[in-house]
Design brief:
By secondary structure, this protein is of the alpha/beta class. The protein is 43% helix and 15% strand.
């Protein structure tokens, strides 16, 4: 029996057939170039075991030489996976464009997934109708896992994900699900404590705060850090609540000025809310930082553009996104969910 002749390979255009035409390389071509069986090539491609180091090296070199690429549809039939993941935002659609933190996370996650040749699917579930549609899509197995963005306590989407055993990693501490779902979070409590202490260190004595929603980890943990820094000097009259929007920051700042006109600093739980707070302070004739020092949280790009430029806590969005993708793929591969908390450095600018 005569052994099959290895195919002629043009590294620029592909595999050449006997009549000189170029065609897409196949597993058979890879096997012929590597000098192994098609079954060995298949095991290498699908990450299987029982392949010797020499055979694996030969197959990988043959894949590089021939330019072979696996058929994703055929591979998904074999592995039972879609080879894609979802970026799931459980907030109203307009916030994807209005709040810069979400677009930064999306960009970072998409890049991190692409490095692993994993397409990213964007899903938004801010209404009951959207949640039903998304739940059906996820239950059908169209993605291998979910990056859950902006999860409020009691978020019904979290229950759907757990009920259908969909691998999930949350952005921020998933309140109420800490032991069930992996997550990556900036150190909100430490960041809140650091910013408040910085305002105190500049000589301020009546430091107010504008929190995020109290059903979110940022709202709860940054407030805890604020209280820890103040200790016995904590005064509930110096606390107002927002929803991370610019308008809520404007309104909360007005509420604080009416309630405590003697305040001389404010720690705002997001840069976007801080932008609204600055408008109120300027309208009221309060100079920043001379009369009132202002600190934010995020460093998402908004802070440096404000007038004056905003002192804030830096969230490492690119690293948060990359770690979320890494942890999610580990869960997809059967590992236990893990949690990572990343430091938030203080960035000092003119506002404080």
């Amino acid at each position: 029996m005569t052994a099959a002749r290895p195919p002629r390979v043009n590294t620029l255009t592909g595999v050449e057939s006997e009549d000189g035409r170029v065609r897409r390389p196949t597993i058979r071509d890879v096997a012929a170039v590597a000098g192994v069986s098609r079954g060995t090539v298949s095991r290498v491609i699908n990450g299987g075991h029982w392949v010797s180091p020499d055979a694996r090296t030969a197959v990988e070199e043959a894949i590089r030489t021939t330019g072979y690429r696996a058929n994703p549809h055929a591979r998904s039939l074999v592995t039972g996976r879609s080879n894609s993941v979802a970026f799931l935002l459980t907030e109203p659609q307009h916030l994807l464009f209005e709040d810069p933190t979400f677009s930064l996370l999306l960009r970072g996650a998409t890049h991190a997934a692409s490095q692993r040749q994993m397409p990213m699917v964007l899903l938004v579930a801010g209404t009951a109708e959207e949640r039903r549609s998304v739940a059906q899509y996820l239950e059908a197995g169209h993605v291998d896992g979910v990056l859950l963005i902006s999860s409020h306590r009691g978020n019904p989407m979290m229950g759907e994900l757990l009920r259908h055993d969909i691998p999930t990693v949350a952005c921020g501490v998933p309140l109420g699900y800490e032991g069930k779902v992996g997550y990556v979070s900036a150190d909100d409590r430490s960041g809140g404590r650091t910013m408040t202490q910085h305002l105190l260190d500049t000589g301020r004595r009546r430091v107010a705060t504008i929190t995020g929603p109290m059903d979110t980890p940022g709202g709860v943990l940054r407030l805890e850090g604020y209280r820890e820094a103040l200790g016995d000097a904590y005064d509930p009259e110096l606390v107002a609540h927002g929803d991370y929007s610019r308008e809520s920051g404007r309104l909360a700042m007005a509420e604080l000025l009416e309630r405590r006109p003697d305040l001389d600093a404010v720690f705002v739980h997001s840069d976007l809310m801080a932008a609204g707070a600055l408008v109120t302070l300027q309208t009221a004739g309060r100079r920043v930082p001379d009369d009132v020092a202002v600190g934010g949280f995020d460093d998402s790009g908004v802070a440096a553009q404000l007038h004056p430029p905003l002192t804030t806590m830096h969230q490492p969005y690119e690293r948060i996104s990359a770690e979320m993708v890494r942890l999610l793929l580990e869960v997809v591969d059967g590992q236990e969910p893990a949690a990572i908390i990343l430091p938030t450095p203080l960035v000092v600018r003119d506002s404080a």
